[in-house]
Amino acid sequence: MPQLSSGGGDDLGANDEMIAFKDEGEQEEKIQENAFTERDLADLKSSLVNESESNSSPAAAAADPEAIRRVQDPQRVYQEKLPDHMEDGIKHQDTGMYKGSAYSGYPFLMLSDPYLPNGSMSPLSNKVPVVQPSHGVHPLTPLIPYSNEHFSHGSHSPHLPADINQKQGVHRPSQTSDIPGFYSLPPGGVGQITPSMGWQSQSVYPLPSCGFRQPYSSALSAGATFSRFTHPLMLSSGMHTTGIPHPAIVPHSGKQEMDHYDRTMKPQPEPKREKEAKKPTIKKPLNAFMLYMKEMRAKVIAECTLKESAAINQILGRRWHALSREEQAKYYELARKERQLHMQLYPGWSARDNYGKKKRRAREKQQDSNSDPASPKKCRARFGLNQQTDWCGPCRRKKKCIRYLQGEGPCSSPVSSDGSAIDSPPSPLDTLQCISSAFTSDKLATPADFAHKEQRNPFPTSIHVKSAPCSSGLTTHCSSTPHVSVASSDSSKYSVPSTGT
DNA sequence: TTGCCTTTGAAGTCG
DNA sequence: CGACTTCAAAGGCAA
């Protein structure tokens, strides 16, 4: 993972490091295969860029070198993108409610950014919205489902030009404001917000597609300031006492409720009342990769005309590894900010709160795994490995062995905790059976048994689960995240996240 | 209707 | 403390 030089004391999600990585021999072949796909994608990209530019679709921006450059300058890109999403928000509003996951509008806390390369904090440095709606809205741009034209008449940001989207050739009327589109802030209101509360000054919070059922525990001292936010939909169904809804909060039946709103475009009091009794669920903040996925998903879908998330995610995972250190660092930074925001909003919240939802099922699974010959424990025993210090590469990720999915055989050999190869690694057959049996319930599967599984993957990738030892020596990380070789223009680079904790 | 798939990373649990 | 597990998003798909 990217190692930020300016990390200071605070972790950037993880103290990751980038490891130069040379893949195995077959990598070239894979790269060629991938190159074909990439070329196709590139063609699609170029067409998409043209198309999307006219549509102001941020998704295609990444295909544009200029867009890439902008992405490398978060502050700038946010400024430039802002109007787009405000416009998006207008569209959403026109349809009644913002449609998206309960979390898709997760706003980001734009804190003073000690991680900026120059260490400076521009007026916009705390206005960097991170996530966007899942569909067609740039995630690195503010989620601005609602325009100030609707809720904050004529308040213009002193920081943003009236027309900041000239680069995209689309004139934007003066919709720009660093005031949340649906938060009507009085002049000077933002100034009352501490930097750490900067997200609230962002137009990043889409109106949740569902109401919040309970007031947030108010740990925010700035509540008085925000109590002025008076969007009727926000205030009608419960929210943070500050008046700021947070997408991380969703009703237990959030999906259903969203559908309810989406279909009717109007809040319907009856079912709403019923659900108000239910406790809201505060979801985990998104990590760097999740943020990246949110940003890129629409683009990949458009390029590949795929909608199956599993396949999309495979592609995104590959692209994630193809990102440069700097590019990844941006997402780590954004994720860090989001965690900070989350912590500030919900001081008492813990990921533990959402733990155990599937506890029963997990237990059942664990029981199954005890009888599963492909379980890491069983495989370690089979290969004579130390249960405490060794791990069986294949079984470590028994359900995600991409290489095996690609029909390339077993992915790795057992590795000791110090990263050194273990003598007498399992035979390919053993390993192969070990992996494939992970897909079967009670017997060691053969490759033939596994064949149909390969068909599940509509997007063969060049992802290879590297054999250990981990080139980084970070066996811990290596064991939890397989090395992935990526067919990219810079295939010599490979990022290896470390736990960093 | 529910859960799986699939990805990475953060954070939880467990031994 | 390290290993392992769960959850976060997404939407198609199968049971």
UniProtKB/TrEMBL annotation:
GO cellular component assignments: beta-catenin-TCF complex; chromatin
Any single biological process term in GO: canonical Wnt signaling pathway
Chief location bin: nucleus
Gene3D superfamilies according to UniProt: High mobility group box domain (1.10.30.10), TCF3-CBD (Catenin binding domain) (4.10.900.10)
Compositional bias of kind Low complexity: 46-65
Region spans: Disordered: 1-72, 152-180, 259-281, 352-380, 481-501
Cited SUPFAM superfamilies: HMG-box
Biased composition (Gly residues): 1-11
Polar residues bias spans: 165-178
Key words of the record: Activator, DNA-binding, Nucleus, Repressor, Transcription, Transcription regulation, Wnt signaling pathway
One Gene Ontology MF term: RNA polymerase II cis-regulatory region sequence-specific DNA binding
Localization of this protein: Nucleus
Composition bias type Basic and acidic residues, residue spans: 19-43, 259-279
Membership in a protein family: Belongs to the TCF/LEF family.
Name this polypeptide is given: Transcription factor 7
Organism listed in the record: Chrysemys picta bellii (Western painted turtle)
Lineage start: Eukaryota, Metazoa, Chordata, Craniata, Vertebrata
